[in-house]
Known about the structure:
Chain A has one helix and 30 strands. Chain A is an all-beta fold and about 350 residues long. Chain A has a domain at about 225-345: Methylamine Dehydrogenase, Chain H, CATH 2.130.10. A seven-stranded parallel beta sheet of chain B has the order 3-2-6-1-7-8-9, with helices on both faces.
Amino acid sequence: MSQTVSADHxxxxxxxxxxxxxxxxxxxxxxxxxAAAFALGDGTVRIARxxxxxxxxxxxxxxxxxxxxxxxxxxxxxxxxxxxxxxRIGADGGVSDIASFGMKWVEHVASFTDGKARLVGxxxxxxxxxxxxxxxxxxxxxHPSTVTGIAFDAKGKRVAASHYNGASVWFVASKTxxxxxxEWKGSHTGIAISPDGDAVVTAMQENAxxxxxxxxxxxxxxxxxxxxxxxxxxxxNGKWLATSGAESIVxxxxxxxxxxxxxxxELAGGDGVxxxxxxxxxxxxxxxxxxxxxLVVLADINSARILPVAGTGRGPVxxxxxxxxxxxxxxxxxxxxxxxxxxSKK
Amino acid sequence: MADAAPNTDLVPVTxxxxxxxxxxxxxxxxxxxxxxxxxxxxxxxxxxxxxxDNDLVVDTDEEVFEMNNGCICCTVRGDLIRIVGGLxxxxxxxxxxIIETTGLANPxxxxxxxxxxxxxxxxxRLDAIVTVVDAKHLPERLQDSNEAEDQIAFADVIVLNKADxxxxxxxxxxxxxxxxxxxxxxIHRTTKANVPIAELLNQGAFDLTRVLAHTPGFLxxxxxxxxxxxxxxxxxVESPIDAERFNAWIGALLAEKGQDLLRTKxxxxxxxxxxxxxxxAVHMIADGDFIGPWKEGEPRVSRIVFIGRNLNRPQLxxxxxxxxxx
Lengths: 346, 326
């Protein structure tokens, strides 16, 4: 006699869930990991402190929130919205302005800190704006077309932006503002940098990824997706690039010469449902992934074991983030469901 | 399968084209300020012209790019893909989206965007392309540019504005000129773009059922077919269509002539199916879906409409007729 364990077992026994009544645009823990924030389509941000069941909402954007990242400071977050504002949200829920950009949407935000230097970047139209720890604008970097994604490298030395016909990689501290131009014809819609800083990968309109190895200029083409890739995330050790956009978690090998000419590893496939969001674990070779039917799983890459986290029926998974120590996973869906799951040993 | 009547969960999108000065901005201001009980997100190119403060107005730079999908005329608006994605995050705040194009723009890339991008297709449906033309200046525009002609050819609805600035005879002549290019669009004669908003928005015009049901001049043989002017023609057959044959024929036709074929639309009765099949294409990019059953007693006539350049009537007719199920 076998007993079926519910797909919601982990959610029910280790999770705190809430219905937020708006599209969950992004989730992020702050750098201490003591609280997670969910940025919503109604312009509010919900702050979930560790263990709290009640997540207070703060009004941040007049319109929809479009992007969220942890602040470069130890606590709090930065967010962008379609009200042209870049805002800071404190751990206490206090909201302040960092900058405003007229009529343009603030579609991308990113931050970096190594404990000393602090950087906040945002993508607005064709520009990437960089701010230091005091919110002084360090730089405004102009691109040939609208910026569709930004990423700092692991050391905060460079910032990369995707746009039409390729990507631009800028040195943050450079006196002369000339980017390294990575060219490939087409519309590039998102960007990631490998932890060692040697590979830049973009998602493309044509359901494919394109990559450049910076050390020797080698191009990498990764294709075969049935839909666009929205989420890309390198594993901590840089061996794998986990990607959404297929009916499984697609992992490209970035070791032993790179992904060229190799098939990717596919995990958690077989149901014919698109993977819409994912986040690699900050320490282990593992990836959490969400699907268009609401299913959330945790996949161990080496053993290919799949642990169900939440079952189907709560809307396409649209946001996902790990706490910096990898013990908590936050996720949310297009229909406003959100949860935080505790993976620590009990 | 559930009856696939036009999906009401999908956000209707109206594309508003027309030359500078034709009255587009007047119309947009009316849509934004009049009390018609619906809210529209409006995507515009030059915010300055619009005197309305509204958090649903989105300013964009038209960014057109070519898709690398082996289709030479497939260009899409990347900025619209991004903006529609962004607007969907507050889907509950509006009833529809209106996209204004710049005066000189060819509506092709805008329309193709709604066929090509999966995420956009999953959330929206192209409701209609509305072209505003200036009754006084249209004849000149048609002489000096292809864009004016293309904007009329692409239109589902034409607002023939500034009718008060011309004589009744001139107005009639302009309308004839429009009909020569596109005899299937609905035409509203207006002054100050004073067409009732309800007649423009959420018409389901792009799904073409209504358009095809009221097609004037079916089966007329009055066009000059071998020149660069845009013309439109339609064909109908009474016996059911074989889906496979149709797909093979239309696929080859669009691949070969797609650059000349601006719009192709059809309502088809497939053999052995109780539902109407709606087919449409912009250049080479095609799309089709079942749109609900034929009405009781309604003649199951399959119709197809072509709007474009260098249309070869006998060839198109023979091709369509050969799609009938044996």
